[in-house]
Amino acid sequence: MEYNVTSISSTAFTINTVSRWLNYVLAIPMIILGILGSILTILVFTRQSSFQRNPTIIYLLAGAIMTAIHLPTIYLQSILVDGFGLGIFNTNDLACREHNYLLYATTVAAISFPCWAAFDQYASTCREASFRNRWSSIRVVRAAITGTIIFWTIVYLPMIFFSGIDHNICVLTNIYYRNLNDFIVTPLVYTIGPLTFIIIFTRRTIQNLRAVTLTNRRDHLTKQIRHMLIPQLIILALSGVPFGLQNIYFNLTNDVYKDSLRQAIEHLFVQIIRLFYHFNFVFTFYIYLYMSSEVRKVLRRITTSSRKKSIEGSNTDSIVLQTLTCDNTSRDRLF
């Protein structure tokens, strides 16, 4: 019996070590890549006039901005807790409330914008001109983005009041709200909603494209945007299923006794699911870069422009330094 207990503890320790190393080896590089990618997405999409006028791109730009907020404020906190044992939101009540609120509000807002982009692809390919002009316009995009942020900001306000620390873990303390969130809101928002939205509007977009051939000078860019969006939507749909179901599992097994081995295994799966789900936030820019020659062209232009400015700045400093040296030399000769 003592041997079994020792063996279980040893196995649990090994699994917990693997969980920590997932944060060291994968999560930290993913955060760096994700933040860099979101910044580059913002730069690329705001430097090209054709991008600025495209409703789908504006939705994706809003998603990149939300990602730039989510990764350092939420995902980084989780890595500090699970990888380095720095229990920020597990030891401070205010940090716990802030973490839970921003966790849900920023995550759901970020995954909403690719869904809006899927809808815009359907609207922009619709055969009815009145429908296209009404729903695929910059005015509608701005209203949808503003409304989405306000909506999720209000929906998740109870997180601030119903979050707290229980046994050194940041949890939802109100059982009724926790059940509502775990069994209804989270599966609907993270799994059922995005899957339904993506399937319906992607299918209708394909039907529209088969029914009519739109020929205009923006066709090339439109096809590239579609190629950029589809892989992102596939990742979003696939990763949302396990992420949406994990809360249901933990809620149902909340009162079940779990030894150290089971806790370690569950914690490892949480780390893996969280890593997989954050593919949505980390790799979107690199999908855009691979799928679109327009994105690569704008990025090269930005890089070249920055390099030229750096060289010009160095030359200017050199000229100023030479001028000062000559002036000092002339002054020395006068005296």
UniProtKB/TrEMBL annotation:
The chain crosses the membrane at residues 21-45, 57-81, 101-119, 140-163, 183-201, 228-249, 269-291. Signal peptide: none annotated. It comes from Adineta steineri. GO terms for cellular component: plasma membrane. It is a multi-pass membrane protein. GO terms for molecular function: G protein-coupled receptor activity. InterPro entries: GPCR_Rhodpsn_7TM. It comes from the Eukaryota. Keywords: G-protein coupled receptor, Membrane, Receptor, Transducer, Transmembrane, Transmembrane helix. This is G-protein coupled receptors family 1 profile domain-containing protein. SUPFAM superfamilies: Family A G protein-coupled receptor-like (SSF81321).
